[in-house]
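Workshop exercise sheet. Pairs work together: one partner reads the sequence aloud, the other fills in the structure field after running the prediction. Swap roles for the next sheet.
Pair: D.N. / O.F.
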Amino acid sequence: MKLPNINKKRILTLLRDGKRLDGRKPFELRDISIETGVSINAEGTSRVKIGKTEVVVGVKMDVQEPYPDHENEGTMITSMEFSPAAGERWEGGPPGMDSIEIARVVDRGIRESGFIDWKKLCIKEGEKVWSVLIDIYCINDDGNAMDASALGAIAALKLARFPVYDEKEEKVKFGEFTDKPLPLTEKLPLTLTFHKIGDKLIIDPNRDEEDSGEARITIAVSSVKKEKMINAMQKGGITPFTIEEMEKIIEETEKAYDKIFAEIEKKIKHVTK
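Structure field:
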């Protein structure tokens, strides 16, 4: 949606002084809230707020035949949808390109990081494996639904538990849960999204800032023992980023990752005590 020129000029004027509409600095994140256990019917759930942007994520698990090229590995499907209540630009119906892109970026960040040990989701090689289904629903959109969705997916996966599987009847008993967690590694993946407005860079844009941007880049990064690795990137917009801008983005990505990682660890430890 096109932002009125007067609004964009105001954003640019503030950025030249190192300020933003909501009082933040260019590389300052909004407040992050992570709530878990929001549904009794899913294997893992979360509600994440980044500023006023809010998403609800559910993880469901089922058993299926493996893919022919991964006969001893589990599978994963990620979907994302904007509720019509999320904002005036969103309508009911099949997911649009924005939803599809977010789902793919979240999915890719998880896969490429090695966060899930896929082989431990195998029940019987070539016949049965666990399938992890991640459903993301944005109920309020004030910008950066991308990072909120990724954070919500990770929080839900971290606390997910296997459902009961009846081997004799070969079916999942939905609504009945075990104490067995998903086979996750230490390679916790997050996405950090930056926008370029004029010649200025910002992280975690709100809705007006997103609509003002000429370019966007999302970096999926993971970390093991404080060693960070970029797992994937997704660029939007036609304006390029310079080498110097990318170096700055990577530098700020590391700082933001550490802050968000601490938020997740604090929340998960509190829930699992």
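Discussion prompt: The mean pLDDT is 92. What would you look at next?
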